[in-house]
Amino acid sequence: MNRVVISRVATVTALGDGLEPLWQGLLAGRSGIAPLTRFGCENYISQQAACIADLQAPAKGSLLDTILERIAVQIGDLPNDCRLLVASTKGEIDRLTTVCRQEAAIPPAVLFEPLLEKIARRFSLPDRGCNINAACASSTIALARAAALIAAGQAEAVLVYAADLVSEFVFSGFSALQALSAEPCRPFDRQRKGLTLGEAGVAVLLMNEERAKLSAESPLAYVAGWGAANDAHHVTAPARDGCGLILACRQALAKAEIAADQVAAINAHGTGTVYNDAMELTAFNAVFGAQLPPLHGVKGSLGHCLGAAGGVEVAIACRALQQQLIPGTVGCPDAEEAGQGRLNTAPQKVSGDYLLCSNSGFGGINAVVILQGVA
Amino acid sequence: MKGWINGIGWVTAAGCGNGRNAEQQPLCPGSLEIPKRKQVFEKPDMRFGRLDEFSRIGLAALAFCLRDAGEESWSEKRPIGIIAASRYGCLQTDLAYLRTMLPEQGKLASPNLFAYTLPNSFLGEAALRFGLAGNTLVFNQEDESGLSPLRFALEELAWSEQQAMLAGICDLAPPQGLSRGGEYPGSLFLLLGKEPSAVFPGYGELELRGNEMVFAGAAVTDLPTLVASCLAAKK
Known about the structure:
Largest interface: A-B, 64 and 54 residues
Shape of chain A: globular
Largest sheet of chain B: 9 strands, mixed
CATH superfamily of chain B: Thiolase/Chalcone synthase
Largest sheet of chain A: 11 strands, mixed
Shape of chain B: globular
Oligomer: heterodimer
Number of helices of chain B: 7
CATH class of chain B: Alpha Beta
CATH superfamily of the largest domain in chain A: Thiolase/Chalcone synthase
């Protein structure tokens, strides 16, 4: 099996363009959640979201176009044989909403195939790739598939590009489901009342280790293990016993060939909804027991970035492993009992080689990626 | 990479069906009849009637496929995943949801419709009904052959602990003006196992040799041809 390295990352989030401002913002405990001005939200149960600053759509275009441009500038030139995996739950949903509001004809561009073509063209990749839709686990599963392709020798380089927007479509839906918190979300806090939406674009370049060396790419981290499993329980609610997440964690540990106590830290999904966060803590306690490592969640700072969430969190995890430090969990001053002593609003020092990232989503899906630091 | 084709099920313009009860491959042009609960499940199923049409055809095809393989009933969750390819995804559901959201500035947005504005929602419906605890995802990719989900599934089988994968396609007829032509509305899934079925005789072994897909010793060029070969093989 080929060793898989992450050699480049690029991020655009509510805490700025690039990993450095994102990392510094997280360490400082900053939050990108702010009053929402993109669309009228007086009829919804929340009026806040974590939007990317200065995001303007081109004429007749989508806000995703601008995110793509800002990511492409950061990521630089890519190997010509690089495969492309995209992860977006709703694509250009802002454009679809606009044409429906105007009662205009639906342009083919709202479909994923033209979007894939646009993304491939912007990155100058011959491979048009595919879009993976597994709800909020989309980019985690895309990263797992990229790693699997490289490990099996089916590809030498894969770009995972993920992006999702704060849109009225999704905002109104989560509001109708009563899943939004009126206040900024509080992942893993006893007083949590729901999620806050966010938006992001992220690109992660994965390479075969040998190819990365030949290309003089400096590895940021290794992708050591991955797993994905369905709860087989409910379409919109997580299984309370965390069965799917437990299974995905165990698959990832087995793939990485490590014991649970070798995991130094966890970047949890931590949406801030009552049931998701309880499920995660149940699952992590089942997998790690008394060795539950320090854990954190970033959605109190970035909001829930849907299909892009996992990609952004993996980018953050690369830096966390490098610095042996995980950011604090903004919004969690009073952690759930099952996470006490492991969650902190301040950054926590960690010690070890492996960091586990997990995401779960509608449809009962759970996905886990384990990163290994570079010695 | 290899997998045994142990079941085939569909909802297409040719109707609802499964491989063991059919002679002709069902992917064809025409209008699609959305199945009613009684056509799919004998027992009452409160959720089925509430599903959007995209989820109904997808779930029904998965049910027919598992039934075809003798794998519908279960007592413990199983390491079976689902890979579904779709060009239009749940676009029709998105449009239906927008019709509830846009009037009255969101006051009437339907939570039930919103829950199905992710194309993978029907995979969750299938997972909970049939105890499928593997990887489940929908993917979009330009692919005229219809074989890309099978390739994806064979790779999953080879690279993971999953014992079987349901792989296929799911699409309603597209909204006016978006059709690219030559499309077969409907949903069709194959159950690919690491091992041949212990319940019913399977259809044969599907192999991925590099970029080429091979069934019964012959290269396969597209999904309708593969299904036709499977149906011929059972004779």
